[in-house]
Amino acid sequence: MRGEMHATATVNWYFRAPDSPNFSHIYSYDANVGEIRDDRFMDRLDWSGSKQTEDLQDGSLYILNVTFNDTGEYECRFNRIFIYNNFVFVTTNNKTIFLTVVPQLTRGMASILSEVMMYVSIIGLQFWLLVEMIYCYRKIAAAGEEALRQNAADYLAIASESKGNCADVQEAE
């Protein structure tokens, strides 16, 4: 409830099938009580609008166990009454919803084919990565053996030069 005024609201839902000329009253929500008014929707409508308040802000309604017969035009009529100290203001807002029920979609051939191709490409990329890793490992290993041979020769050359320098140093003493 608002501090500056008191307000109440009622919500009424109506349904018109494609082959029907008139709307039929299917649901009413007033004073925190909802009522299903049409037997076609018995035990299939669930109020999900504002709860525990007379000043409704939301008039949402769920349709459960939807069937092809639920295809049609729905109208929500929202009536609000604002009660001020000196006067009462009444406003009405109507919203129309067109609902078309379609059969549940099954996975088409394109969906199945695209999923199979996705897995094939993943396996192919993993195989390519494995081949690349083996190639690079062999290349590094071959270069490493050559580098070890070259480094060993360099170490031997440095060692023999060092011995020569040591001999020269000893002779000079």
Description:
With 173 residues, this protein is an alpha+beta fold. It is 37% helix and 30% strand. It has one helix at residues 109-172, and strands spanning 6-16, 24-30, 33-36, 45-47, 61-63, 72-83, 88-99. The strands form two sheets. Strands 3-2-1-6-7 form a five-stranded antiparallel sheet, with no helix packed on it. The chain has a two-stranded antiparallel sheet with strand order 4-5. The termini are far apart. The mean pLDDT is 85.
List the defining traits of the structure above.
single chain; 173 residues; alpha+beta; five-stranded antiparallel sheet; two-stranded antiparallel ribbon; 7 strands; 30% strand
Helix content: 25-40%
Q: Roughly how many Å is the radius of gyration?
A: 42 Å
Number of strands: 7
Gross geometry: elongated
Strand count, sense and barrel status of the largest sheet are:
5 strands, antiparallel
- State the separation between the terminal residues, measured CA to CA: 110 Å
Spell out the helices and strands N to C. Answer: EEEEEEEH
Could you list the spans in which at least 5 consecutive residues all have pLDDT below 50? none
- Number of helical elements: 1
Please list the strands of the largest sheet in the order they lie side by side.
3-2-1-6-7
**Class computed from helices, strands and strand pairing:** alpha+beta
Kindly report the average pLDDT value.
85
Q: Report the β-strand fraction as a percent range.
A: 25-35%
